[in-house]
Amino acid sequence: MQLKTILNRRYPLKRFVYGKAEISGNRVLIDVRPRKNSKPCCGQCGSSGPTYDTRSPREFQFVPILGLAVFFVYAMRRVDCSHCGVKTEYLEWSSGKERMTTAYKWFLSSWARRMSWSETARIFGTSWNRVYRSVRHAVMWGLVHREEPKFTAIGIDEIAARRGHRYLTLVYQIDEGSRRLLWVGRERKEKTLEGFFDLFETSVKEHLRFVCSDMWKPYLNVIANRAGHALNILDRYHVMATMNKKVDKVRAEETRQMQRDGYEPILKHSRWCLLKRPKNRTKKQTAKMRELMKYNLRTMRAYLMKEDFQQFWSYQSPTWAGKFLDSWCTRAMRSQLDPMKEMAATLRRHRELLLNWFAAKGELSSGSVEGMNTKAKVALRKSYGFKTDEVYETVLYHELGRLPQHELAHQFC
Fold first, then answer.
1. What is the CATH number of domain 153-235+367-382?
2. What's CA 91's distance to the chain center, in Å?
3. Predicted TM-score (pTM) of this structure
4. What is the pLDDT of residues 59-76, one digit of tens each?
5. What are phi and psi of 357, to 5 degrees?
């Protein structure tokens, strides 16, 4: 069976035909020519017209065969279009000035989901930039062909994209059985999140019931203004992460004070003992905690307050949970530990949002947003190369967006 026959079966062209194929080194060059008596189509409006002239042959990279790089060789025509003037013809296997075929783009983008972009480029003998352009093509096609999502629960969070407090705002769909990235915004300002609600205004009004977020004020302001009908739930992970920061602040202050006063550095190497859950500690860390419990330390008081607060999440009734929260905040304000006082003040400010957690209990997983964030961080590492916001957005949509794919993505991978 000739290569031309295989191509006609797997990748038939409507307005063009395959010519002879020859091997040159580790490359296969396949001539492509227009069908007899066919007119070229304008690359701008798509209407057919007479040929104005023919340019020199150009190579377009196709999907590799048996480890050999495959190229279509075609001399492009220019069309004397009655609407647009003289324009380069439309090609069904490529677009614009791109030297890769559309099939090859989908081929690379599919492999880039399984491996890092650098590894994909190395294996298939191409450049990182070509892999990026292929993934970008797949993402843009997927966003255009994505159906209007109907989500009942979303999670809003940010991740650090680069050094210097450069953040990306991420909005996830966290419905049970349908978790994916919906939207990426640059920075974490109010106007950033407004962009999401502008884009998905219909779905927000008709379907949204739950919004899971942290305590970042710009997010809370936008959620209250644009999704006031939905239940805004403070994510348990972020509440306890803030609590851990306060405990660690007490530890750091007390460690410095003990050094100044000339006491034994008993708190040295105790940070992770205090921040980890008891079941996750090593034997050495467990022994360290037993030793610390013998001392009347401010740090241990803060730690015990943090562990006591964990009871809050076990309540079934919002009423009793509210009473526990009020009691805990009162004790924290009397503790003479400034970081814990700050934590109590924060919890009091967000009391209503904290109690919303119980109203949605059983319908919303508190760890779903952070789980998606972990996947997002892994995805960013796969694209290491040029660090720009556009690259970050592309890889996040590609890995987490569950975007629709063209049939070519399944035909060659």
1. 3.30.420.10
2. 33
3. 0.86
4. 999 999 888 999 999 999
5. -55, -35
